[in-house]
Amino acid sequence: MDKKVFILVSLMIFTHFQLQAQLNACEAYWVQDTLILKNDVIEQKLIWRNDELHHFSLANINPPDKLLFNSNTASVTIFDEKAQATAKNLKIKKVEGHFLYPDHIQAHVITNYHGIALKRVFKIFPASTAIACQYFYKDVKLKSYGASQNLSDGVETETAQPATDLKFSNYGLENRHWRIDYVSFQDVTDNFNNLVMENHIIAYRYAQPLVSNLLFARDQQTDQQFFILKESPLHHNQVNYPGADFMVSNKAISVTGLGIPFEPVQEWQPGYTVTTGFVGKDENRLVNLRKYLKASRKYGPQHEMILMNTWGDRGRDGKISETFALREIAAGEKLGFTHLQLDDGWQKGLSKNSASSGARLWSEWPEGSWEPNPERFPEGLDKTVGAANKAGVKVGLWFNPTSANNFATWERDANVLLDYYRKYGIATFKIDGLQIPNKTAEKNLRSFFDKVMQEADGQVVFNTDVTAGRRGGYYFYDEYGNIFVENRYTDWANYYPYQTLRNLWQLSKYVGPEKLQFEFLNKWRNEDKYPENDIFAPANYDFEYLFAITLMAQPLAWFEGSNLPEEAIKAAPAIKTYKKVMSEIHKGVILPIGEEPDGKSWTGFQSMNGQKGYLLVFRENNADNHRQLATHFQPGNQVIFTSVIGQGEDFESIIDKGGKLKVELPEKNSYSLWKYEVK
């Protein structure tokens, strides 16, 4: 055997056994009445009492640390009913080689109530810092519920009355002093530009409803923390939303609203997922959250892209044609982009957004609508894809599934995309126009995604648009690819680079930037649409700087490449250098550093992968040429920084108290990407 082949085979065998050993560290079993769920990082215990599960503890494996819950609090409360007599049960399932998820084990536990049967599916991933629990339901006889609570009538009592509603995952709190930090998110970004809202309360004896997908709870006496992530659409898009996601008092935290319909269901139907993670006293809770998200989703080379989509120049479909696509491919190759996505207009059936008159399609697309437009692409997509392959650029397509009748034609739509995947190798699809009003639509849309992903062996990437409509937000359907976050246009003077940076910076605390698409635009267009004295107008920034804003995310070149001036080509060396390291950057846990971007700050990101990583720093329109930035390094670390792109120079530094690092950049609105190594 060739020596190189032998080494490769040996590495493959070693990697297989290494992954198998990690999977074998995932366990679920009963010890008398205690259900133990664990991997090599975290252990969760629940007690079976009165035919129901009760949260008992969360623990770190190494270093050892434990948080105890008050296990007298039932895990589920349905109108204060008790669970029916149910035998203690557990079914273990090993999931390997899945098209969406890393290998893991599942633990299934069923509980019956008078109004509903619930199945909890605990998901234990190797190296994960949290354990997920997806709820399934059937035999539904519920009529309605709400996050209601009894208002005070002025008669003072020692004990507050608990809220009565449909609650899941009730975590009984041992101590009375809890700080609750909760995060609310916003999508529908065509209308909104503040996407993250951070709040906190001190828990009181009376249960308070909170609107939030993510909650951190800290015991102020011990400094122990845990987090609860509700993996669902955002509040305004959830099915049968009861008005809150959490009910919080100083005695218990409950999750409410799992998308359960109020009609009979005979077979098991999926609800939302509630994920619980432990954070020790000295641990970084954001790192722990991100490690769970990385451990529970598959991420591969197909997800990496510097994608150009011409819609950002507001020509809509007025230019889309074979000739135009060939020009864009040539421009994309010259600049170093990986993908060209043909947006709305490549298809035979034209949409309501078309520049052509008479176009009316949006929520329903008749048979044949998704053939290549015969006037614009007379040879089909053969010539376009052939030219792209020769240039090293991949073609992607815009697609709007028929949402009429709750995505009833999901299978037909899935076959349309699979035909393009099999015939042309097209594997990147922007999904637009979604409306998910009920559980049937939610289920059918998931069937659409699953069919495509399964038959394409997980190689397809969906860019799911969250700019309008009722959609999945940042934690639902996110396993299918990346998230197209926002449309911004110089035509409407609503593209401000620092605001794009701010949105990415804020989201990157709680959502992996590697899963987000963020845009940079043609700064030379529509300069007259901005006030002459507007220092934050795109024209006041270097084109390469605009690109750099998107580096930690998936960069979206939101313009016609063939419409750029020659000056834009100066950014090509930086783009091509970034392309060589983008996969390595995205492997790390990426978190924001410095100050929140406001156009005048020092800000940036840190990608952490053990003792190595990347640091991206922006000096916005700020008079200082250096700044002490708060980072995620440990005080006393000696770190070597090597410039990759941008205006920074190589340097070496010892991290100050509080994890602060002194950085220098020579000009306003300049940036630097460094590769670093901790000595």
Task: Give me some keywords for this one.
globular; about 675 residues; nine-stranded antiparallel sheet
Describe the structure.
With 679 residues, this protein is of the alpha+beta class. Helices cover 19% and strands 31% of the residues. It contains ten helices and 35 strands.
The helix-and-strand class reads alpha+beta
The gross shape turns out to be globular
Percent of residues in helical segments? 10-25%
| CA(first)-CA(last) distance | 39 Å
Mean pLDDT, as a whole number?
A: 92
Q: Major beta sheet, specifics?
A: 9 strands, antiparallel
CA-atom Rg in angstroms: 26 Å
Count of individual helical segments: 10
Percent range for β-strand residues: 25-35%
Low confidence ranges: 1-19, 147-152, 159-164
Number-wise, the strands total 35
Give me the side-by-side strand order of the main sheet. 7-8-9-10-19-16-15-12-13
